[in-house]
Known about the structure:
The protein is mainly α. The protein has helices spanning 5-14, 17-25, 27-36, 40-64, 70-77, 83-96, 102-108, 114-127, 133-138, 144-157, 159-170, 175-188, 193-202, 206-216, 221-227, 233-246, 252-255, 264-277, 283-289, 295-308, 314-320, 326-339, 345-351, 357-370, 376-385, 389-402, 408-414, 420-433, 439-445, 451-467, 472-479, 482-486, 489-492.
Amino acid sequence: MNYDQSDIAKMAADGDLDGLIRVLRYAEDFVAQQESANAWEAKDAFERRKQELLRAAVEALGNLGDAGAVLPLVAALKYRDDWQVSQAAADALGKIGDVRAVEALIAALQDPAWSVRQAAAEALGKIGDARAVESLEVRLRDCDAVCRAAANALSQIGGAEAVEALITGLKNHWPQASLSAGDALKQVGAPAVEPLFAVLRDRSAPEAAARALVQIGAPAVEPFIVMLQESGEDLRLAAARALGKIGDARAVEPLIPVLQDPDPKARAAAAVALGRIGDAGAVEALSAALKDSAEEVRQGAAGSLGAIGDAGAVEALIAVLQDSDSHVRLAAASALGRIGEARAGAPLIAALEDSDPQVRAAAAGALGAIGDPGAVEALVAVLIHDRDQEARAASAGALGKMGDARAVYPLTIAIEDSDDRVRAISADALGKIGDPGAVEALIAALQDSFKEARVAAAQALVKFYQSGSLNQKTILRILAQREKVMYHSDWIEPCGPEHHDAGIGVDFPL
């Protein structure tokens, strides 16, 4: 009897286990037909048809999920003429989940085709038999896909032996093995915590162990808190960093004393960690840390106070705007912007004259977040006269957020700035302010050489048009630009260079 795909589909629909198994055995008939064929093309066609039927039958047996198919599928797993048949057999055996397939699947971990090895590893994970642990550990040194499958299978098998195999993989110098093992240990969860802390303490793979423990999360918090008291500076540092990444509030109280640690790196890590956790109970201690002798601690404390966002830190942060280190001043200015208290306005205006352009930019951004109208003139001065493009760009953005009409004319000047980003942000700011006096400058900006500036100008003009506050002449002036605003240069000349006068691609509904 000759079989085809429709026969297999019907057998699968009917749940015909015996019929599907007969298809697997039917391969011998194809061999006989090949021997009687006269032409190579005919033999090749027979072989292709045989393999297609085998794959279809194997997949159908896996979907059927009947344990009666295990032994025929084990035989198909050893099929060497087509790796796709072997892969499909491994997949099918994983779906059925019968332990009788374990030894054959372990042998398939040695298959020349990586996809078969991957499928065998995945199947062994689904079956969950500890006999596969040793062989799966070897496959942690295989190619990426097989390595990941083997690590995941070990996590599914679980138990002390599988965890130990993953710990060995974690220590492997090949990055993919270490990363895959770490990801798998996360899936193991709490049972992996103690072995991972052993790796962390013996320093055989400290970074990989800490990363895996952070991924595990809550079960690792208490052991990390204990580690904060240990003598090794590197261990205290690792514990503080990890607790910040986990973000569990249980760590707040134990981390506060670390702000007095002899090691400045540990103090800085504790400061950053407290900000990541975001508990207001750390504000007082972090405010005191703004006077630390180490600049990295002061910087970390300032950043964390901004992350927590408690108004009780404002005065301490204002004082740090005078810090000797520019990184600390930058962190303080940014933090004040995140907190958004109006009383920081005057000190931040003064910071617009800081010697460091990054501090000036941060102060401008903070003033935009606070929205102090008293800062408009100072921000305009930075926008027009500052030599640093980041400071000018931050001032343009701040003026757009504040929406003050006094900024319109300076922004129409800045829309011709030498820096691309300043022009783009200035166009966007004019759109936010919404003053009709900016229309002509925005129309001119549609010709800008920088795409983001053209887009910002086009979007601003569409906002003006939709606002309903323009006179008829201005509306018509904007409508005359509709084609340029809407059609994208890529549509007009997709294979050639972009021309900034060919269209922008911003939606302009009427």
